[in-house]
Protein backbone atom coordinates (compact mmCIF):
# COMPACT_ATOMS: atom_id res chain seq x y z
CA UNK A 1 0.00 0.00 0.00
CA UNK A 2 1.28 3.44 -0.81
CA UNK A 3 0.80 6.65 1.21
CA UNK A 4 -2.37 7.60 -0.66
CA UNK A 5 -4.13 4.49 0.56
CA UNK A 6 -3.97 2.74 -2.78
CA UNK A 7 -3.26 -0.96 -2.54
CA UNK A 8 -0.88 -2.68 -4.92
CA UNK A 9 -3.92 -4.08 -6.75
CA UNK A 10 -5.23 -0.55 -7.44
CA UNK A 11 -7.98 -0.55 -4.80
CA UNK A 12 -8.39 2.66 -2.80
CA UNK A 13 -9.18 1.98 0.86
CA UNK A 14 -11.65 4.04 2.87
CA UNK A 15 -10.38 6.48 5.47
CA UNK A 16 -11.71 4.14 8.17
CA UNK A 17 -9.72 1.18 6.86
CA UNK A 18 -6.57 3.29 6.63
CA UNK A 19 -6.98 4.71 10.15
CA UNK A 20 -7.56 1.33 11.79
CA UNK A 21 -4.84 -0.37 9.76
CA UNK A 22 -2.23 2.28 10.55
CA UNK A 23 -3.34 2.69 14.19
CA UNK A 24 -5.08 -0.54 15.21
CA UNK A 25 -6.93 -0.54 18.50
CA UNK A 26 -6.72 -3.50 20.87
CA UNK A 27 -3.90 -5.26 19.04
CA UNK A 28 -1.74 -7.55 21.13
CA UNK A 29 -1.98 -10.17 23.83
CA UNK A 30 -4.77 -10.14 26.40
CA UNK A 31 -3.76 -11.07 29.92
CA UNK A 32 -6.22 -13.36 31.69
CA UNK A 33 -8.26 -14.09 28.56
CA UNK A 34 -10.87 -16.75 29.22
CA UNK A 35 -11.99 -17.26 25.62
CA UNK A 36 -10.18 -17.22 22.30
CA UNK A 37 -10.94 -18.04 18.72
CA UNK A 38 -8.84 -18.30 15.60
CA UNK A 39 -9.58 -18.02 11.91
CA UNK A 40 -7.49 -18.48 8.79
CA UNK A 41 -8.07 -17.68 5.15
CA UNK A 42 -6.05 -20.20 3.13
CA UNK A 43 -6.61 -18.24 -0.09
CA UNK A 44 -4.59 -15.22 1.02
CA UNK A 45 -2.82 -16.45 4.16
CA UNK A 46 -4.53 -14.09 6.63
CA UNK A 47 -4.55 -15.42 10.20
CA UNK A 48 -6.21 -13.90 13.23
CA UNK A 49 -6.61 -14.75 16.89
CA UNK A 50 -9.24 -12.93 18.92
CA UNK A 51 -9.01 -13.17 22.72
CA UNK A 52 -11.76 -12.19 25.16
CA UNK A 53 -12.03 -11.60 28.87
CA UNK A 54 -15.61 -12.11 29.98
CA UNK A 55 -17.67 -11.78 33.14
CA UNK A 56 -21.32 -12.70 33.66
CA UNK A 57 -21.91 -13.36 29.94
CA UNK A 58 -20.51 -9.94 28.98
CA UNK A 59 -17.32 -9.12 27.12
CA UNK A 60 -15.09 -7.06 29.40
CA UNK A 61 -12.17 -6.77 26.99
CA UNK A 62 -11.25 -7.96 23.50
CA UNK A 63 -7.86 -7.96 21.80
CA UNK A 64 -6.47 -9.50 18.63
CA UNK A 65 -3.28 -10.66 17.02
CA UNK A 66 -3.21 -10.87 13.23
CA UNK A 67 -0.85 -11.60 10.41
CA UNK A 68 -3.17 -10.18 7.82
CA UNK A 69 -3.98 -7.55 5.23
CA UNK A 70 -5.15 -3.99 5.89
CA UNK A 71 -8.83 -4.87 5.61
CA UNK A 72 -8.62 -7.73 8.11
CA UNK A 73 -6.61 -5.70 10.63
CA UNK A 74 -8.97 -2.72 10.34
CA UNK A 75 -11.97 -5.00 10.73
CA UNK A 76 -10.50 -6.62 13.86
CA UNK A 77 -9.70 -3.21 15.32
CA UNK A 78 -13.26 -1.98 14.77
CA UNK A 79 -14.80 -5.21 16.01
CA UNK A 80 -12.81 -5.30 19.24
CA UNK A 81 -13.86 -1.71 19.99
CA UNK A 82 -17.50 -2.62 19.46
CA UNK A 83 -17.38 -5.76 21.61
CA UNK A 84 -16.41 -4.16 24.89
CA UNK A 85 -19.44 -4.32 27.21
CA UNK A 86 -21.54 -6.38 24.81
CA UNK A 87 -23.30 -9.52 26.04
CA UNK A 88 -22.45 -12.84 24.39
CA UNK A 89 -25.88 -13.25 22.77
CA UNK A 90 -25.66 -9.84 21.06
CA UNK A 91 -22.08 -10.47 19.95
CA UNK A 92 -23.18 -13.72 18.30
CA UNK A 93 -25.72 -11.83 16.19
CA UNK A 94 -23.33 -9.33 14.60
CA UNK A 95 -23.89 -9.74 10.88
CA UNK A 96 -21.22 -9.81 8.20
CA UNK A 97 -22.88 -6.83 6.49
CA UNK A 98 -22.54 -4.78 9.70
CA UNK A 99 -18.81 -5.48 9.81
CA UNK A 100 -18.37 -4.54 6.16
CA UNK A 101 -20.47 -1.37 6.55
CA UNK A 102 -18.35 -0.29 9.54
CA UNK A 103 -15.29 -0.26 7.26
CA UNK A 104 -16.79 2.67 5.42
CA UNK A 105 -17.22 1.48 1.91
CA UNK A 106 -17.85 -1.23 -0.57
CA UNK A 107 -15.46 -4.11 -0.85
CA UNK A 108 -14.82 -6.24 -3.87
CA UNK A 109 -16.31 -9.71 -3.51
CA UNK A 110 -12.91 -11.35 -3.23
CA UNK A 111 -12.02 -9.11 -0.26
CA UNK A 112 -15.18 -9.71 1.79
CA UNK A 113 -13.63 -12.68 3.57
CA UNK A 114 -10.77 -10.42 4.69
CA UNK A 115 -13.32 -8.22 6.45
CA UNK A 116 -15.29 -11.06 8.01
CA UNK A 117 -12.38 -13.19 9.25
CA UNK A 118 -12.34 -11.42 12.66
CA UNK A 119 -16.06 -12.16 12.99
CA UNK A 120 -15.32 -15.83 12.29
CA UNK A 121 -12.71 -15.77 15.07
CA UNK A 122 -15.24 -14.13 17.41
CA UNK A 123 -17.79 -16.85 16.75
CA UNK A 124 -15.15 -19.50 17.44
CA UNK A 125 -14.32 -17.78 20.74
CA UNK A 126 -17.97 -17.68 21.79
CA UNK A 127 -18.80 -21.25 20.83
CA UNK A 128 -19.36 -23.39 23.91
Describe this structure in words.
By secondary structure, this protein is an alpha+beta fold. The chain has a single domain, classed as Sufe protein. Chain: A. It has five helices and three strands, in the order αβββαααα. The protein has a three-stranded antiparallel sheet with strand order 1-2-3. Helix 1 packs across helix 2 and helix 2 runs parallel beside helix 5. The radius of gyration is 14 Å and the shape is globular. It starts with 14 loop residues before the first helix and ends with a helix. The model has no long low-confidence stretch (mean pLDDT 91).
Number of strands: 3
- Indicate the proportion of strand residues: 15-25%
Gyration radius, to the nearest Å?
14 Å
| Order of helix and strand elements from N to C terminus | HEEEHHHH
Work out the helicity level: 25-40%
Widest sheet: strand order?
A: 1-2-3
Class derived from helix and strand content:
alpha+beta
**Average pLDDT level:** 91
**Which CATH top level class fits?**
Alpha Beta
Summarize the structure.
The chain has 128 residues and is an alpha+beta fold. Helix content is 38%, strand content 20%. The chain has helices at 15-22, 70-83, 88-92, 96-102, 112-126; strands at 35-40, 47-55, 58-67.
